[in-house]
C-alpha cells in the first residue's frame, strides 16, 4: 500500500523549474531515501510533500487522501512529522522540557511521563535530561529533534539530511535509530547525501537530477547504473 503518492508534481520559482513532473510513491512501512547531487530538487520536493510550498502543478496524496492544498499543520494531524536540516531545538531549555513541549499536544499526566522516559531512553539522552539542549553535541541535538518529531507518533517521519555535521559514529547510531522506528512500523522518507548511511537504512531509493526522477529501485541496482554513478557519485564526494 502506498502512504504517499506524488503525481506529476512540478515546482517553478520564476524561470527556474526546481521539480519537474515528478512521480514518487512511498510505500507504507518502508525506509525510502531521496538522493541526488546538489541542486537536484530534493529539498524542494520534500517541502512540497510536507506542505511548506504549494506545487505549481500536480497532486500529492497521503493515505489516498488528496492533500495538495492542505497546510502543513493539517498534514501533521494526518500523521506526518518532519525534521528539517538544521537542528531547531530550544537550546536555552533543558532536554526534558524540549521533549515535554513536543508531547504536550498529544498526551498528559502519567501517559506523558511514560512517553518522556521512552523517548529519552530511545534517544540515549536519559543521562542528559537536565542539560540545556544547547550544551549537547551537534549529533545529540539532531537526535533530540528527531525525538521531538517522534513525540507525535507519526505514521510518516520525514528527515532532511539527518546526519549533516555528524561524526561517522553518530551517523551510524542515527541509522540504527531510524531502523528501530521502522521496525516498529513507521514509514520513513529521508533526504540524504551520505551513501554509506543510505546503504545502512534504505529499502528503496529515488535519484533526482535537475528536478526530474533519474532512477529508482534498490540501492544495489541504482549503484550499477553507470549514468547514476556519473551524475551523482562523482559529485557527492565533493559535497
Ligand atoms: N525558495 C526558492 N526560491 C528560488 N529558487 C529556489 C528556492 N528553493 C530552491 N531553489 C532552487 O531550486 C533548485 C533545487 O534546489 P533544492 O534545494 O531543492 O536542491 P537540493 O537537491 O535539495 O540541493 P542540496 O543537496 O544542495 O540541498 C536549486 O536551483 C535552488 O537554487
TrEMBL record:
Function: Involved in beta-(1-->2)glucan export. Transmembrane domains (TMD) form a pore in the inner membrane and the ATP-binding domain (NBD) is responsible for energy generation.
Keyword Transmembrane helix: no
Protein name (Swiss-Prot/TrEMBL): Amino acid/amide ABC transporter ATP-binding protein 1, HAAT family
Organism of origin: Rhodopseudomonas pseudopalustris
GO molecular-function terms, A-Z: ATP binding; ATP hydrolysis activity
Stored SUPFAM superfamilies: P-loop containing nucleoside triphosphate hydrolases
Residue intervals of the ABC transporter domain: 4-235
Keywords: ATP-binding, Nucleotide-binding, Transport
UniProt-listed InterPro entries: AAA+_ATPase, ABC_AA/LPS_Transport, ABC_transporter-like_ATP-bd, P-loop_NTPase
